[in-house]
Design goal:
This protein has 188 residues and is α/β, with parallel strands linked by helices. The protein contains 6 helices and 5 strands. The chain has a 5-stranded mixed beta sheet, with helices on both faces. The protein is globular, with a radius of gyration of 20 Å. The termini are far apart.
Amino acid sequence: MRVLAVDPGLTRCGVGVVDGLPGRRLSLVEVGVIRTPSTDPTPRRLVALEDELREWFERTRPEAVAIERVFADTNVSTVMGTAQCTGIVMMLAERRSLPVALHTPTEVKAAVSGSGRADKRQVTAMVTRLLGLDQAPKPADAADALALAICHVWRGGTQSRFAEAAAAQARTTPTRHRRPTTAGAARR
C-alpha cells in the first residue's frame, strides 16, 4: 500500500510517501516540506499549497491518504491554517476516490516508537531506522509526515480492512424487523 501522509500547516506542510504492508519492510518513496510565505495573503497561500499538493498526488500515485488530526491550540490562527490545509488534502483525495484517515499525534508516536509520549527526537530516530535511511529526514515536519505514513500503513490499513469486513458482513446479514413496542406506538 502506498500512503501519502500530510503533517498539515500553512507555513510548513510536511509531506511523506511510504510504500509498505503491515508486518513487511517499509520503503521511502518521497519526502519534503511545502512552504508558503507568511507575508502572502491566506488565499494565495492556500492556492500555492493546493498546487504543490496536487503535484504530489499526481507524481506519487498514493492508494491512501493520512492526515494528522487537528487539535485545539491556544493560537487560533495556527489551528485555522492547519484546518484549512487539512481541507485541501481531503478535497484532493476525495477527487481521486482515495480513502482518508486522520491520526492523532499520540497515535502516531505510539505506532512508531511504542510510546505516545515520545519526543520529536525519538520519533525521528525511529522513522530513520524503520525506513532504513542513512540520515534523519529534516526538518521535523518531514519526519512527522513519514511517521504518520508509517502509522497509517501499520494501523490504518488494518482498520480499513476491519471496516470493509464489517461492511461486507452487514450487506450479507439479513436484517430483522422488530415490532413496535407499546411505548413506541404511543408516541405516534
